[in-house]
Amino acid sequence: MNADAARAALSNTSTGWSKSSFSNGGQNGCVEFNFDLPGWAGVRDSKLGDASPVLVFNAREIDALIAGMKAGEFDGRM
């Protein structure tokens, strides 16, 4: 499956989306992740819900992002 097919599949589902517990239940500035499609992760704007565009990342990309976050590579950037 390529990224376009993964994006289409994740864009057409309302289930499986979740926000980080660090969002403190806030309605602003949160993203949701969906890991229901094997090998892919979907990311969307929680404020827009089903109307949000969906970004997709493969497992290698998500692993690199998480590793960079844990290593502090993005600290102080915002």
Structure description:
The protein has 2 helices and 4 strands, in the order αββββα. The longest helix is centred in the C-terminal third of the chain and has 12 residues. The model has no long low-confidence stretch (mean pLDDT 90). This is DUF397 domain-containing protein. Pfam families: DUF397.
SS element count, helices: 2
Helix content: 25-40%
Order of helices and strands: HEEEEH
Distance between the termini: 34 Å
| Beta-strand residue fraction | 15-25%
Number of domains: 1
Task: Report the structural category.
Answer: alpha+beta
The shape, in one word, is: globular
Structure summary, number of beta strands: 4
Average pLDDT number = 90
Which spans have pLDDT < 50 for at least 5 consecutive residues? none
Which strands sit side by side, in order, in the main sheet?
Answer: 1-2-3-4
For the CA atoms, what is the radius of gyration?
A: 13 Å
Biggest β-sheet: count, sense, barrel?
4 strands, antiparallel
